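### Sample
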Amino acid sequence: MKIEEIIVVEGKDDTRRIKLAVEADTIETNGSAINEETLQLIAHAQATRGVIVFTDPDFPGGKIRATIVERIPGVKHAFLRKDDAQSPKGGSLGIEHASPETIREALKNIYTQRQAETSDIDRKFLDEWRLVGHADSSSYRELLGDALGIGHTNGKQLLKRLRMFQLEKEAVNAAMTAILKELDEKDSLTALRQEEENK
């Protein structure tokens, strides 16, 4: 699989892992404090070949993504689920821990940032699905982020990201319906097992 765009990653380990999965060129940010030179390099890459931002699914990765989005419009985004980026030893999250198959899958399902953010989703709609303003909202946002392949966010960022990628209520409704069905099935299975154990 050959990637035409230049992939922006955080470090050398990420580049090595990406090159195991696909044929691609990368730019490394070398940490969350991206310097001006690197931002200019990314801007040039966007103007000539296009850019895919592919950072770790953690706070520093989100910070890098936000910095790039602010400065360079129209970049594409690839996301990994936290489970797919977990170190086998536990603790750290990163692209360098992902399997080549997972990396290829993430790069097949990229989102393009649109300059005009349009969507029929508002905060009230997110509240109705318990994605904001509830004790369990963070868990629901994580499940939705995985289902839609848009990464994990806080409540404010979720609304912005859904609008940025022009996702509509229909996509969220379908994803949340499937998520709740799966959670209900897991709860039923757990209750059944407990019933069997109590016999």
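The beta strands are 2-9, 23-28, 51-53, 76-77, 111-112. This sample (Ribonuclease M5) is used throughout the tutorial notebook.
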